Recover the amino acids of this structure.
């Protein structure tokens, strides 16, 4: 006999119970009233109230003044309250939801941007959004949150307040908190998930992990019930039903331990009806007769279309293989359902007694044949792996196989994952065809179990890697440390260099020992340069970089190659009233005082020198501390006559050698 275990928290939560009891009290009292929208997401309760005269209405314009209006537990926006101000309002908004309304209204009034984790189409979220006076954004995935944060930063970082829908998944909410705390410094987080929701989801997971089969009771449109069914399905076979008529008798008999839970909008009487019906099914049957009947049913049940089975290969043919799936029908797997490779040799790929995971495509009881697929089963398994990767945040690898409208398709685990163009890189990719056939790493950011599709993001992986590099950088950085980095951008005041996830800036004065007008004179975007840490601002996360090397310092070169008394060719670079400045080597200028330009007194420097002139000058003084050099043209001129005299005294007498040569007169 199967064991049936019911979750302690199954059924109405406090907020829903209060709203439903209030609605039934009004109905029993004969009050003419409406509920603003369905009182809860449970069709049976809504139908029962309607039969008693309490009907839902979602258009305020259709509700006359003075009408009694019950505000459901989901709450409504501030605008709706204003539209219904002339009605007799009975506010049954869940206290947890009302708390979020107050938070959003207060924080928005302070000028904060409001972020809401939840389903934008859910009435609770619509009501929450309606209490924000300024900017408000709703998101359901980490990627949507990342886009919002990036847009906020681009438009100037403003203070942010983040809340969650009361029934939001706790595990995903924790991811969001971690993400925004690491990417946004000015944020205040309010943990607004209902404690009852947290307990209910935790109980459901624990019960499902110990069960063979789970039954989740609640409206098919109930957000929290859908989440419960989703959680349970990760541990065991799960059915989501609304009432007892949907119970599957065969499945009840086939499992030893059955777990039952229910959504927050599921009435206790519906849960009791389901449990009583299950008990009756188990108690009121003839064991011998029903066991034989059940065995026959189980054989057929196991082979329904879409069922996964294990098959043992009994025969291999060029165009199909035969398998034993433990049923009365013979199993056949066509070659087209074994592999996508049309050139594959089936006889070599499969052998007798091989065990295969298969999925049922078609059951033909008349012919006694069941058609199966290995390829589709592999795809199912691949999807399960992808779903698990989504839950765990695991990085997957795949190959870009197609460029489609709006993005690319990446093949991994036999499944094609869509990656939107905006998620293919941390920078804009102008031509997506450049990604074709490339192996990429990505995260799954969104899944659709109903359509068995998933959306991925390469950008999310790059963001995580960048974050890891940043953490490593800040843990090890120190002044004076040398790095190689790539020049990412140039401005009028310097160059920004990527040091591996962290950007540092080389100020224009640090790019060259000589004066330059633009950083482009020294570096270009894409250049790999060697820099050193000049200064660190850990609070503002700013890095100042040095690029000039000491050995390239013009003053060091000058010190090495020149000394007082040396004569050098210098170039006049500027003229003043008191003298002229001349370049000795690039980066080192010397002053030729007006008194040192000529032997005679001159009134104006420009009478003797002009910018661009190259002249010989003697170094007459050097002050390395103040980086000053004094030059003298006059000193060179004073030495010239003595040198000429010396040359005349030592000049050889060639005239005597010419005497006596016919036709030559020596004077």
């Amino acid at each position: 006999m199967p064991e049936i275990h019911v979750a302690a928290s199954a059924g109405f939560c406090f907020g829903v119970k209060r709203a439903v009891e209030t609605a039934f009290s009004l109905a029993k009292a004969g009050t003419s009233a409406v509920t603003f929208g369905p009182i809860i997401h449970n069709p049976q309760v809504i139908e029962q109230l309607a039969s008693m005269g309490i009907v839902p209405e979602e258009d305020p314009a259709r509700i006359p003044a003075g009408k009694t209006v019950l505000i459901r537990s989901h709450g409504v926006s501030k605008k709706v309250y204003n539209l219904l101000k002339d009605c007799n309002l009975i506010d049954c908004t869940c206290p947890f939801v009302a708390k979020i309304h107050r938070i959003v209204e207060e924080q928005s009034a302070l000028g904060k941007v409001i972020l809401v984790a939840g389903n934008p189409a859910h009435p609770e979220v619509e009501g929450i959004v309606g209490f924000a006076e300024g900017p408000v954004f709703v998101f359901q995935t980490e990627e949507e949150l990342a886009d919002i944060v990036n847009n906020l930063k681009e438009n100037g970082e403003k203070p942010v307040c983040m809340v969650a829908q009361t029934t939001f998944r706790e595990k995903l909410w924790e991811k969001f908190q971690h993400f925004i705390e690491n990417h946004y410094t000015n944020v205040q987080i309010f943990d607004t998930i209902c404690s009852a929701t947290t307990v209910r989801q935790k109980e459901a997971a624990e019960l499902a992990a110990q069960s063979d089969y789970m039954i989740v009771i609640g409206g098919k449109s109930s957000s929290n019930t859908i989440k419960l069914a989703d959680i349970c399905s990760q541990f065991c076979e799960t059915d989501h039903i609304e009432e007892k008529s949907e119970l599957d008798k065969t499945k009840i008999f086939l499992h030893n331990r059955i777990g039952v839970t229910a959504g927050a909008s599921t009435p206790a009487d519906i849960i009791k009806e389901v449990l009583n019906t299950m008990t009756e099914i188990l108690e009121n049957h003839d064991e011998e007769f029903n066991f034989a009947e059940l065995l026959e049913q189980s054989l057929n049940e196991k082979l329904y279309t879409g069922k996964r089975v294990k098959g043992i290969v009994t025969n291999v043919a060029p165009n199909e293989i035969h398998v034993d799936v433990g049923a009365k029908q013979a199993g056949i797997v066509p070659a087209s359902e074994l592999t996508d490779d049309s050139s594959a040799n089936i006889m070599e790929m499969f052998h007798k007694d091989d065990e295969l995971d298969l999925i049922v495509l078609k059951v033909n009881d008349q012919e006694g044949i069941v058609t199966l697929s290995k390829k589709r089963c592999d795809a199912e398994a691949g999807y399960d792996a992808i779903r698990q990767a989504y839950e765990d945040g695991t990085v997957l690898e795949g190959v870009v196989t197609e460029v489609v409208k709006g993005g690319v398709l990446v093949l991994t685990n036999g499944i094609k994952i869509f990656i939107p163009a905006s998620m293919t890189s941390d920078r804009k990719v102008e031509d997506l065809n450049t990604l074709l056939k490339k192996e990429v790493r990505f995260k799954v950011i969104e899944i659709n179990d109903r359509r068995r599709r998933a959306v991925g993001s390469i950008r999310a992986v790059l963001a995580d890697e960048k974050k890891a590099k940043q953490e490593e950088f800040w843990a090890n950085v120190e002044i004076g440390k040398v790095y190689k980095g790539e020049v990412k951008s140039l401005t009028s005041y310097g160059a920004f260099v990527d040091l591996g996830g962290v950007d540092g800036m080389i100020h224009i004065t640090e790019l060259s020992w000589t004066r330059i007008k633009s950083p482009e004179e020294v570096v270009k975007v894409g250049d790999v340069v060697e820099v050193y840490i000049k200064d660190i601002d850990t609070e503002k996360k700013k890095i100042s970089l040095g690029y000039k090397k000491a050995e390239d310092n013009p003053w060091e070169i000058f010190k090495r190659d020149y000394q007082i008394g040396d004569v050098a060719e210098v170039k006049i670079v500027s003229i003043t009233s008191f003298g002229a400045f001349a370049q000795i080597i690039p980066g080192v200028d010397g002053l030729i005082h007006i008194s040192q330009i000529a032997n005679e007194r001159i009134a104006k420097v420009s009478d003797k020198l002009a910018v661009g002139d190259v002249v010989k000058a003697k170094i007459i003084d050097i002050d390395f501390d103040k980086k000053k050099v004094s030059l003298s043209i006059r000193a060179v001129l004073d030495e010239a006559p003595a040198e000429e005299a010396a040359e005349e005294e030592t000049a050889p007498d060639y005239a005597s050698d010419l005497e006596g040569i016919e036709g030559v007169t020596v004077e």
Q: What stands out?
A: The chain has 19 helices and 32 strands. The radius of gyration is 42 Å.
